[in-house]
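Appendix C: a fully annotated inverse folding record. The material below is reproduced so that readers can follow the format used throughout the book. The structure is listed first as tokens, followed by the designed sequence.
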């Protein structure tokens, strides 16, 4: 149903073409939403939630992914307020609000009075892109992972997630689902790692991809191996393979305070193109 006050309704398969035109306005920043639309056809049963659209004069002008994450798409202040109004009407069902800073800030301001306080808010996360060859030598040890690597890979993924998010992905009985996600990325050829002997010394994954871009997540080096350039040379290898085989532009976003990671990405050739924010519950 379309709200006459906000012009917001849930999108469906018939809206796919218009939605992809919307994400194409900034295809790298919108890669997550683009990927979700292409892989689910905007069908709620496959989305595991909904994709809301806001219309003006019958034209789709903004959207918002509503699943485990609330993700605004091309949302200006009025769009974000409209999405926040709809979100308040259903209560909080998401674990994060994430996306471009201004839209996330406006969304949070709109729902803050009715939702519980976030566990953490990271307001200015540099969004980085690389669209050319890496500027450092790729680590030749980096390769796609296989099921034979799971004994090393899965604990590394848990350690990375716990360090990054502040809570284990296995918390509350989530181990089976998280292991399935790690396996899913592996099966897609989206999981990469470097090994020294049998020990994993670097890892990263492609979180999502479209014909325009791929977004990297889960970059991690064991604490006792940091400061040796493993992240820079590992990311150079990942970016090189992903640009050749998955999508022409590689992106990621990083915490503003993580200066070591930011230096590593800058060495590779990643450049800041936007600022993201993440509000975590």
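Designed amino acids, in order:
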């Amino acid at each position: 149903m379309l709200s006459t006050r906000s012009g917001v309704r849930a999108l469906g398969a018939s809206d796919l073409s218009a939605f992809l035109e919307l994400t194409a306005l900034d295809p790298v920043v919108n890669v997550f939403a683009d990927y979700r639309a292409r892989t689910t056809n905007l069908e709620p049963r496959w989305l595991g939630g909904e994709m809301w659209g806001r219309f003006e004069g019958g034209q789709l002008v903004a959207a918002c992914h509503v699943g485990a994450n609330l993700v605004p798409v091309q949302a200006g202040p009025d769009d974000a307020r409209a999405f926040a109004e709809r979100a308040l009407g259903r209560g909080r069902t998401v674990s994060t609000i994430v996306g471009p800073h201004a839209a996330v800030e406006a969304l949070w301001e709109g729902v803050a009075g009715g939702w519980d306080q976030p566990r953490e808010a990271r307001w200015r996360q540099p969004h980085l892109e690389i669209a050319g060859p890496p500027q450092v030598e790729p680590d030749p040890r980096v390769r796609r992972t296989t099921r034979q690597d799971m004994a090393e890979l899965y604990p590394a993924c848990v350690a990375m997630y716990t360090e990054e998010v502040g809570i284990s992905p296995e918390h509350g009985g989530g181990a089976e689902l998280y292991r399935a996600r790690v396996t899913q990325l592996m099966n897609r050829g989206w999981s990469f790692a470097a090994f020294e002997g049998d020990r994993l010394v670097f890892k990263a994954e492609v979180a999502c991809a479209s014909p325009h871009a791929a977004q990297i997540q889960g970059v991690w080096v064991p604490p006792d191996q940091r400061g040796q350039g493993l992240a820079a040379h590992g990311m150079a290898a990942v970016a090189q393979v992903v640009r050749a085989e998955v999508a022409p532009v590689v992106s990621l976003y990083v915490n503003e305070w993580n200066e070591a990671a930011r230096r590593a990405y800058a060495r590779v050739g990643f450049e800041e193109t936007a600022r993201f924010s993440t509000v975590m519950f």
